[in-house]
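Quick entry between incubations.
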Amino acid sequence: MNDPVAFVTGMKLLGAGLAMLGAIGAGVGVGIAAAGGVQAMGRNPDAAPIIQTNMILGMAFAEAVAIYALAVSLIIIFAAG
Amino acid sequence: MNEEKNKRRFGAKRWLILALILAGAWAAYIGPSIFKPVAPMVVLYPEPVWPGLTLLGVPLTNTMLATLIADVILVLLAIKAYRFVKSGNLVPSGIYNAFEAIFDYLWSSVEGATGKWARRVIPLVATIFLLIFVANMIKMIPGFESIGYLEQPQKGRAYAPVALFNIGSKTLYTIDGGQQVEYHAEAAAGEAESGEHTATPTGEHEMCEACQIIPFLRGSATDLNFTLALAVIAVFMTQVYGTWALGPSYFEKFFQFRALISGGVFGIINFGVGFLELILEFAKILSFSFRLFGNIFAGVLLLSIVGALLPIIIPPGLYLFEIFFGIIQAYVFFLLATMFISMAVVSHHGDEHVEEHH
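Done. Structure below.
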């Protein structure tokens, strides 16, 4: 606490780390999407191309949340005063 | 039997690879300090290729230059493919083979999603895919993010410059990973203005004492401007395709006045939902641009940080990972744009849709 600049820097890094907690949900979501996709492909291998397309689409939506968290933490570290 | 054969064969290549790995380890940890890995300088914004260089009044940034190179490559490929089609030769060969494979895949995706609109939709989405794909691939070429001019950074770590060799009257410099200079922004704020270059002509300029490399080329998608521009184009063209397909009634999706007048309580709710759809269009721009930017920028960050921590063995695997992600992100951008357009070109009233089938 003696050095306010170091304190602010440390808090910034802590905040960036906390912002990445958002990746938890995205990770679970991507995992569920992959599990569902693989199960569906196992049951009906003929439909694999369509399932794969939709699976990647769903994963992209789920992953976007993690990317928002990443963007926030990058902005906290490198851009925010 | 096959395994025995392999056991006895001692190719030269594996020893070459092993020697290269050992040479890398020697260079990174034991050898002369100019080979030592440097801590990456992470900047979110793109930097100008050369101080004061402008293109049509806008500073020419390193990401713009990389995008222009990707454009040139794509145009050359397109001309080659066009010549091939014109030649009447039916059996594809060489680069056209790859073109045809990619295009077949894209075409089947677009046709599956948009049906009879596929012929009008594919020029836009396939161009977006090819541009992102080529931009993500040329980002891997060595020299990207590592060759540039030297400049004093505003903050962060900096290194002492070392002269490498002369070409004519110019001297090429590199930064010395072993000589890290603690940098204080207040002390050298004035010097930071006059950035020095890797190739200093006849030593007129003073060299910076603590330098970082400002690269000439940087991956296009590590610049939010590039991804935002693509996202705005994709979302705007979604509206254009929607209006093209449904006429002015496309905008009833957003402003449901008819439901408001005749629908009672649920009409008011539907009117609110229409406004939410309007907000969703702007959210699409955000999610498009941040997804691509975040993925590619995070990849670059990962590569440079791991490269600074452990410069042997691991980075090649990460490069493979990056190639995979470059393709996947281009495909995801393409697929999402296709899906949004396909949602826009079908009528949102269920009853009309049923009538079309009869």
